[in-house]
Every structure is written in C-alpha cells, then in structure tokens.
Amino acid sequence: MRYLFLKQPLLDRFVSESFRHSLSEHVRRWGIAYLLLIVGAALFQAHFGFGLNASPSLPYRFFLIHKGELPQRGDYVAFRWPGGGPYPAGVTFVKVIAGMAGDAVTRVDREFFVNGTLVGQAKAVSRQGVPLELGPTGVLPAGRYYVRAPHPDSLDSRYRLTGWVSAEQIIGRAYALF
Fold first, then answer.
1. Minimal CA–CA distance to 112: which of 162, 76, 172?
2. Burial class (CB in 10 A: 0-12, 13-18, 19+), 160
3. What is the pTM of this model?
4. CA dihedral of 23, 28, 33, 37, whole degrees rounded to 10
5. Cα(49)–Cα(16) distance, rounded to whole angstroms?
C-alpha cells in the first residue's frame, strides 16, 4: 500500500542501472543545449517581455516589449498602470506616444490637441456609466508623455484617471506582433 498509484515494476525502471545509464547519456549529449537554452531564456527575460492588449483600444493584441528602450512620438509604449479605476496597480498598458516633453496639450470642449493636432475626443461617461474627468492640459514637462489609442473607449491621457504618463511608469517600447 506504500505505492498507492504506482506499481512496483514501474518504480524499478527509474532506479535500474539501464535507466541511469540512458539518463547520463542523454545529459551528456544534450546538457550543453539545455544550459544554453536556460541562459538564452534568462537573457531574453532580462531585456524583453510580452504584453497582451485585452481591450479593442488598439488594432493589435500581442506586443513584444523592449524593456528600458524609450519610445519616440508615434511609437507604441508599454507602461505600468498606477492604480485606480477599473484596473489594479501594476497592470501593463500599451498605448501610442502622442506627446513628449515640451509639447502643448490643449482642449476645446472635449477635444484634445497636441501641438494643434487633434488626438481624440473625451467621452463624458465610461461604458459602465461612470463619469470621466478630463485629463490635464498645458505644456508637457520633462519626463511626462501624452499617450493615446485610436479607439474612442481607450482609457488614455484624455482622462484624469490616466493623465500624463511619467517616465518612471514606462517599461519600454512595444512592438506589435499581431
């Protein structure tokens, strides 16, 4: 009854000399490959990550994130959500950089402009019926970014909840995979 689910002959296979010999041959042949695979995975994870866009706010759903690479205007950016609203702190968001330090963010009624270019119109309430406060306007200070997405329901810098994204929140530049 000691081996409730395993039969004794099955256990004997793993302690037999032939099994130990075939295992050592396998490790001798493939050990370097396994070691290189582990080192490669660790290096990849140190510099890259993956992001999944669960909402329809962007035309792509899956992103490769190059950690530490600062994006330029028009690039996808991955950043950590600071918390609040419908999402917990630390969730990864992917948006498009529409404004950088020194750019002027203005608003006419509910339409937002960056350097005079329309970047979106803010809605009064969310899809859940929660009132949405308008985001900040003015000149973007150093280390702050205006982010957007083309979808009208995107939770981006048009709203106070997101506001201007700080450089400390940025994970890195995101590359759309599919």
1. 162
2. middle
3. 0.81
4. 60
5. 42
Widest CA span in the chain: 80
Beta bridge partners of 159: 134
CA-to-CA distance for 178 and 176, rounded, in angstroms?
Answer: 6
Strand ranges in 11-169 using DSSP code E only, listed in sequence order: 48-52, 62-67, 76-80, 92-99, 104-108, 111-114, 117-121, 138-139, 144-148, 165-166
- Contacting residues for 105 by C-beta, under 8 A, at least 6 apart: 99, 112, 113, 114, 136, 137, 138, 139, 140, 146, 157, 164
- Give pairs for 154-157: CB < 8 Å, separation 24+: 154/55, 154/57, 154/58, 154/95, 154/120, 155/57, 155/85, 155/93, 156/57, 156/95, 156/120, 157/98, 157/99, 157/105, 157/112
Question: What per-residue confidence (pLDDT) applies to 18?
Answer: 76
Mean pLDDT, consecutive 10-residue stretches, the chain (178 aa), reads 57 69 87 92 92 88 95 96 89 96 97 97 91 96 96 94 96 96
Nearest CA-CA partner of 167 in 146, 142, 141, 143: 143
